[in-house]
Amino acid sequence: MTLDELPARPQSAAGPRQEARAPSWTEQCRRSNNKDGTVLQSRDTTTAASGDPGLTTGSERKQARILIVAFGDSLTVGYRSPTEDEEFPEPFPYTAFLGKRVDATLHKKAPGFRVEFLNRGIVGELTDDMADRFVRDVVGPRSDAVIILGGSNDLGWGMDPSSVAENLAGMYDEALNSGIQPVACTVPSVRGYDEGIPPRLRLNRLIRNCSESRGIICVDLFTATADAAGRLREEYSNDGLHLSSLGYEAMAEAIFSEAVHGMIKGYMEDTKLLSE
Predict the structure, then answer these.
(1) Is-contact 204 212, C-beta < 8 A?
(2) What is the structure's pLDDT at 105?
(3) What is the pLDDT at residue 272?
(4) What pLDDT, on the 0 to 100 scale, is given for residue 247?
């Protein structure tokens, strides 16, 4: 059975959300107390910390720790396709690399400051699936920021990029209206299926437009993982769609350099936590 023969996936019934703009970090500083135990495809929590790893309490929570949710599909889970050497490879979520990258920065710049990454990726999800669980998995944990990466599966089902972008925009607005800083991400390219590249380019333009109109950060994962011809780099994927460990590490570096580093620096400056 081909993708064209598969039944259509239902669209989300949620209505349009009011467009909002990004709040400042000082307006968002909250400590997450999420202990919901929700069973998801990926539930790893990677903490980057400098200093005492113990939990903070009381007023320290507003200054010593923030929570960033990684929200998406298999590219957030870190799914890797089987190879001859690894029949059942373990996932390599980009949050694992991102946590190490942040830890190295905080150790030098902000002793005692903690950043926690909560991975909320589910393999195979469409953006309407993501929208349906957004409140539970992003707003519910009282996160300070959310990295939103979705749309690859929608395009695989032949969905129009404008509909996908509308779903993503709704999630950006849901985050902003909840006092959460959203980080948009363009979708990576593919390899071995050039027909799949133009829809990704169109979706990514729409994602950038949505981000600019809302004043939010947009990380260009397409450029970070593509070769000069616009295809997914060979060393970054085994199957032409999902990434290798090198690919997920490249994603993490792009997210860190284009979004997380500046966000954390701004937060620390606002709360006077940055070391001289």
Answers:
(1) no
(2) 81
(3) 63
(4) 95
Helix ranges (H only) for the chain are 25-28, 61-64, 74-77, 94-109, 127-134, 152-156, 161-177, 197-214, 221-225, 245-255, 261-270
User: DSSP letter string over 205-228?
Assistant: HHHHHHHHHHT-EEE-HHHHHB-T
- Going by C-alpha positions, the residue among 144, 143, 120 that lies closest to residue 132 is 120
Q: Is residue 5 part of a domain?
A: no
The answer as to whether 15 is a domain residue is no
Q: Quote the pTM value.
A: 0.78
Q: How deeply is 155 buried, as exposed, middle or buried, from its count of CB atoms within 10 A (0-12, 13-18, 19+)?
A: buried
Rounded Cα distance, 186 and 147, in Å: 11
Task: Give the range of the structural domain holding residue 32, as residue numbers without chain letter.
Answer: 20-270
In DSSP notation, 179-193 reads T-EEEEEPPP--SS-
* Half-sphere exposure of residue 35: CA atoms within 13 angstroms, side-chain side: 1
Residues whose CB is less than 8 angstroms from the CB of residue 76 and which lie 6 or more positions away in sequence, other chains included? 42, 70, 93, 94, 95, 119, 120, 121, 147, 149
Q: How many domains would you assign to the chain? A: 1
- Asked whether residue 173 is domain-assigned, the answer is yes
pLDDT of residue 14: 35
Where does residue 212 rank: exposed (0-12), middle (13-18), buried (19+ CB within 10 A)? exposed
Gap between the Cα atoms of 73 and 153, Å rounded: 8
Residue 251 inside a domain? The answer is yes
Q: How far is 242 from 259, CA to CA, in rounded Å?
A: 22
Token code pair at residue 36:
């919901």
Q: What CATH number corresponds to the domain at position 52?
A: 3.40.50.1110
Mean pLDDT by 10 residues, the chain (276 residues): 36 38 36 30 45 35 76 96 80 94 79 87 97 97 96 97 98 98 97 96 98 98 97 94 94 96 79 55
